[in-house]
Amino acid sequence: MLRHSIQTGRFDFEAGGFIDDLTVVYHTSPREYKPSDKVVWICHALTANSDPEDWWPQLTGPGKLFDTEKYFIVCVNMIGSPYGTTGPASWNPDTGKPYLMSFPQMTIRDMVRGMILVRKHLGIEAVDFLIGSSIGGFHAIEWAVMEPEVIRNAVFMATAARVPAYLTAYNESQRMALEADSTFREQKSRKGGELGLRCARSIALISYRSFAGYKNTQSEPDEDALFAGRACSYQQYQGKKLSDRFDAYSYWYLSRSLDSHNLGRGRGGVAAALKTIKAKTTVVAIDSDCIFPPSELKIMADNIPGASWFMVTSDFGHDGFLLENEQLTKILTPILP
Questions:
Q1: Are residues 176 and 299 in the same domain?
Q2: % of the chain with per-residue pLDDT over 70
Q3: 253-280 tens-digit pLDDT
């Protein structure tokens, strides 16, 4: 997929504050958009980027489910991410330093507005197939309500119409880990909070997986081991892996944006907002997902007019949306345009 960017000019944030000239990075199929193209729009997860061939390689690319030759595929890097779109790690032209904690607070609706700016820039009048999981699902649901006439088909997977309190508790625990790192509080550089970020990622990973997943992959191979250590090594490895490619300030802001998600805010409640969705909708739950259990997705399926409902079976919890490719292909193939 090809990387692009646009400058939006002044961007005002829902919670207050503005950026004079916001940059939004996005990826598309490697050609120019034509009105005859079928548009598939993918909303990425929390620490992913706007190139789904990078993080969803089994499903995205030539000849795959999300065929970059058959469809015009678009994925936008969300506001606040460190992968090109303006965020806390970006340079503030007024100070000559990174924004860090002076960046405006972001909401899910802000992020969707950034995606809509890209849609309009490309001249896309209708999105034939919109899919999002996790925070990407937050974006997709919000967009289906903000522009009901634009979204024709939508898939909401491993997500919710309002941030669950259980997830907010995990988010706050991760922010506490970041804030406990003195280098994060000092705000001297974009590398501040590196150790806190590793800890935050370790906390998050537990919520993304399941008891069975850890038992099957991280149990001790030596039955006589004095101390269990395999899972410890795994947590340390995953924490460093993220800190090598991400920054703590972007992570803090993105986790905070999750807590803004409430589809029903100012719309008469969640159920009323869901009923305004006009897209032909498919809701996909993962049976072992502890942060978005099937009951949360059933609320969406029960309130979105004509929605279809599917359950993915997985030992990998929330991360099943990235790993259960065979099941997802079976569900999604019949509904792709």
A1: no
A2: 100
A3: 999 999 999 999 999 999 999 999 999 9
Domain that holds residue 29: 2-164+260-335
The residue annotated as part of the active site, out of 81, 134, 243, 260, is 134
Mark whether 116 and 249 lie in a shared domain: no
pLDDT above 90 (res 84): yes
| Among 110, 181, 247, 289, the one annotated catalytic | 289
289-305 per-position pLDDT tens digit: 999 999 999 999 999 99
- Pick the catalytic residue: 44, 139, 261, 318? 318
* Active-site residue flag, 81: no
Q: Residues 157, 245: one domain?
A: no
pLDDT > 90: percent of the chain: 99
DSSP string, 210-252: -HHHHHHHHS-S-TT-SS--HHHHHHHHHHHHHHTT--HHHHH
**Whether 219 is catalytic:** no
Number of domains in the chain: 2
Within 13 Å and on the Cβ side, how many CA atoms surround 326?
2
Same-domain check for residues 287 and 300: yes
Q: Are residues 150 and 48 part of one domain?
A: yes
Q: Catalytic residue at 314? A: no
Strand partners, 41: 74, 130
Considering only the C-alpha atoms of the chain, give the largest distance between any 2 of them, rounded to a whole number of Å. 64
